[in-house]
Amino acid sequence: MKIMNKTRYTSKLRYVSLYLLISMAGAVYSQEATAVFLGKDFVGGGLEGKSEVYYYERKGVNAVYAVETGTKSAMTAQFDLSEIPSNPVLKMQGRIDIGHVPASDVKISVILNGRSLYTGESGFHNRDWSEKSFDIPFGVLQKGKNELIIRNLVEKGSAGKPPWVMLVMAGVGEGDFRLKEPTNIFQHLSINLPETKEAMKSPDSANKGFTLRGTKGWAWTPEQTITEIPYLKQYNMNFFMNCYLSMFDYPNDNQWWKPLDASFKKKYEEIVRLCKKNDIEFCFAMNPNLYTSRHIDYSSKKDMDDLWQHYEWMAKLEVNWFSICLDDITTGLDAGVQAKFVNSFYQRLKKINPHAQLIFCPTIYSSSYNSHGVNDNEKYLRTIAGELHPEIYCFWTGDGIVGAVSTAKAKEFKEIIGHRLIIWDNYPVNDAYQAMHMGPLVLRDKDLHELCDGYIANAMYTQSEFNRIPTYSCGDYALNPAEYDPLKSIGQAILHQTDNREQAETLRDVVEVYYGFLFHTDRFRTNLNTARFSFQELMAMKQGNVPAKLFKENLQDIYNRLGEQFPGRYQAERATILTDIKWMEERLATFK
Predict the structure, then answer these.
(1) 206-498 under CATH 3.20.20.80, yes or no
(2) Where is the GH84 domain (predicted)?
(3) Which CATH superfamily is domain 35-177 in?
């Protein structure tokens, strides 16, 4: 008879207890909406027919603009009710963008079955998603067909311009119901560990995917980078790009115009050598207009020379790949001037190294067209298409800044920008937030490599050891997208970090708690801490402190096992977990 490891058995009991508590509490206390409809279910409005586009990390959104836009100022949803709630409430999740008017001037009307339910200030947050509730008077709802109309009452404005009111979801139900989308398969990640560790297929025998496969280290130190490069080779990656944040003392001033410290340069020269040793192309990148007290003047020869000193240094080291990044900037947004500037760098690089390749990260870099002051996004992209040297690659992050990456959007973006694309995949990046994204790569189409030449993941900040687990799945996908299996991949990723079953089970438990933002398809955000999210979901239940305490104790057990089974390892990762444990303890202590 096989005896289960005692520690793992205890952990299993906690999961079972937790599951039973959630199930019982859900059966007794939770209220589901009687009817739920997404923004895309509304007819009219300004975004009808654009349900697959992400707006501010949300999909299926609709919006109403000013009255003078006509049909775009109102949207209508019809829904059926088989029963009428005894204490009916309408809830809506939305946001506003006020533009240049006070938030108090952005007014809406809500009409239900021909009756005015509400007229007044929208109540939604400016530039952030929030929820608003309306009591429904007796007799307004009816069995069968019902009709809800949302109107923007601001008189003056243009379609696609603020002030607008966006709606992602609405629902009708009993007074205390929770408004949420129907459960999707991504919300419950359960990993069955494989019995044996399998070697990854070599690129020679199975390369049916991207030509370039790699990652960038988000603000990684040289020491982090040196440690991680051999792992990238193990994961069949052949490309590594430094994060431009790594080129200065982030989060301090980006002094791109100054010579780099000699000892710092020596470390990066070691990185270049190590990449070559591991058959990895090193890509040198900087962004001179981000986090800086001195924005670059594209027309200044001095500014160009000041930036060029760094690229010249790398070109003389026989580095073949370079990137100029102008993403997330608020100054220097003219596409034509940007293109001329980048072209001049490309010409300089070619004179030193005829094999040099350049990737440009444009200011508009996703299909959601999020920008930082660009007035006409499509015009910007078409200007880049016409004026950027045709041999220069462009980065693209996907359907949105984070979230899904689809072939349809890749094709659309490539046609507009007119250049070869390399995917800059913002996963498992945490942008230095108190979060870890450990789950497998998902929501990437299997034929993207037919349109894009490269796939570059983006890493977590200090948690670079845990970062190896999702990065394994990124490499697995990039090598052979058509045969990529997320659950199989993450199981193998865990085994490849461990020496025995006990260690594998501990890392499996970590991943199931910190499964990552890609599994919350209603809202993709890199600051989502899934451990805290799960804890808060439990606390929100009636008597939720009981299962929440079990959840916290289970996380404490995971923290302890990491220390016992991996001595000297996962220091930054354990510090992240410990911070979460203390956060949970504080909330349990104040529970009433």
Answers:
(1) yes
(2) 206-482
(3) Galactose-binding domain-like (2.60.120.260)
